[in-house]
Amino acid sequence: MKTTDFTKIAVLCALSVTAPIVQAEPEAKDTKDAKPATEKQEIKPGTLAASIHDGVTYSILFKALKATGLDQTLAGSDNYTVFAPTDEAFEKLPEGTLDKLMLPENKEKLRSLILYHVIPGSLPSMSLKDGDVKTANGEKVEIDVDGNKVEVDDSHVVNSDILASNGVMHVIDKVLVPKSLDGFADLDAD
Predict the structure, then answer these.
(1) Is the Cβ–Cβ distance between 141 and 132 less than 8 Å?
(2) What does the pLDDT look like over 80-126, one tens digit per residue?
(3) Distance CA 169, CA 80 (A)
(4) Between vectors from CA 159 to CA 154 and to CA 165, what angle results, nearest 5°?
(5) What biological processes does GO assign it (predicted)?
(6) pLDDT at 34 over 50
(7) Whole-number pLDDT of residue 185
(8) What are the structural domain ranges in the chain?
């Protein structure tokens, strides 16, 4: 036996003693019923998020809430007033606008748009007065009250005072567009 062969054997023996022990993986189990460890918390029943999720005319709004993480905000304990555009209101946006807003790279723009529909605190319709109100995105909406008719910017409230455990929701017939998004994806803030 040559010295080099003896050296190779010695090195292999040394490696086998110092090498980490690798155990076989346990057999894979059927995981179709398993929940992921990082699953978001469920939406609490009775919250604004639950009202939007459960409403048949708010599927687009809920999809946008989920895409921006605002579904969890509106499922929390803080009180909000939401001016909720219906699916029909979203469909009035210029063609392709909603698709562009829903792209991951436009998440902050979508978030700003949705937060423009949210006012911190609970404002039932009897509390709504003429004037500007600061929204959760930092910009102001104009509220115009004329008897039983309420307009927010140029959108009409078509159903009001949907109460939730963490605020109130008023249904509107048009998506509100903040000035900061004027011109983005053919949005018009006027």
Answers:
(1) yes
(2) 999 999 999 999 999 999 999 999 999 999 999 999 999 999 999 99
(3) 8
(4) 115
(5) cell adhesion; extracellular matrix organization
(6) no
(7) 86
(8) 43-186
Residue 156, pLDDT above cutoff 90:
yes
The answer to whether the CB of 81 falls within 8 A of the CB of 121 is yes
Helical H segments across 77-146, by residue range = 87-91, 97-101, 107-115
Q: Under 8 Å CB-to-CB from 43, ≥6 apart: which residues? A: 49, 50, 53, 71, 72, 75
Which pTM was predicted? Answer: 0.78
Q: DSSP for 4-73, please give it.
A: HHHHHHHHHHHHHHHSPP-PPPPPPPP-TTPPPTTPPPPPPTTSHHHHHHH-TT-HHHHHHHHHHTHHHH
Q: 3-class DSSP state for residue 180?
A: helix
Question: Tokens in use for 21?
Answer: 């022990």
CATH match of 43-186 with 2.30.180.10:
yes
CA atoms within 13 A of residue 141's CA, in its CB half-sphere: 30
Exposure string of 149-175, with b = 16+ CB inside 10 Å and e = fewer, is: ebbbbebebeebebebebbbbbbbbbb
